[in-house]
Amino acid sequence: MEFGPAGLLCQRIKQGEKVDLFASANDAHPRSLQVRYPHIQLVPFATNRLCLIAKKSVITHHDENWLTLLMSPHLRLGVSTPKADPCGDYTLALFSNIEKRHMGYGSELKEKAMAIVGGQDSLVIPKGRNTAEWLFEQNYADLFIGYASNHQSLRQHSDICVLDIPDEYNVRANYTLAAFTAEALRLVDSLLCLTCGQKYLRDCGFLPANHT
Length: 212
What we know:
The protein is an alpha/beta fold. It contains nine helices and eight strands. The chain has two domains: 6-47 and 172-203; 50-164, D-Maltodextrin-Binding Protein, domain 2.
């Protein structure tokens, strides 16, 4: 089993690397593989949302919210790399949603955001470490846009704050599996599609695949 940015893994598969099962935080990469390999089966298995993760020390006023923090010119915003990592693509969609409601904000955020993880030549996060927590510890960023499921693993860090992003701005991440073999599809059915598998995903902070 190998973990990595889904866009980069998808590219390796297209270049001929053999796999049995591919999981992505979006459905675009699995669908692009299905165009090339029509026999594969796609299985949506969870959804997620974005959140803003911040160093607690940068929240200096009680009335600051996710948007005022994002727009603060003094705070460094780290994001995942678009195209290489689905979280980066979702982040750009978030910026577009912000732009629709606050003209100029989305454009400013696109200029401000530092794509420092999830790319071909990005920072390498040590195994077992949460991305935002490590970036803050190493002083690479003050803010990070990540998945809302991060809230579970960040609860133990008293120096980190996770802020919800309202529905009208947020985006839906559609987690999808691509099964290349019948054996892989059976594994998916037995592990992720049964009640126990879905409960495990819920416990980890994910939402159901049919969540609206």
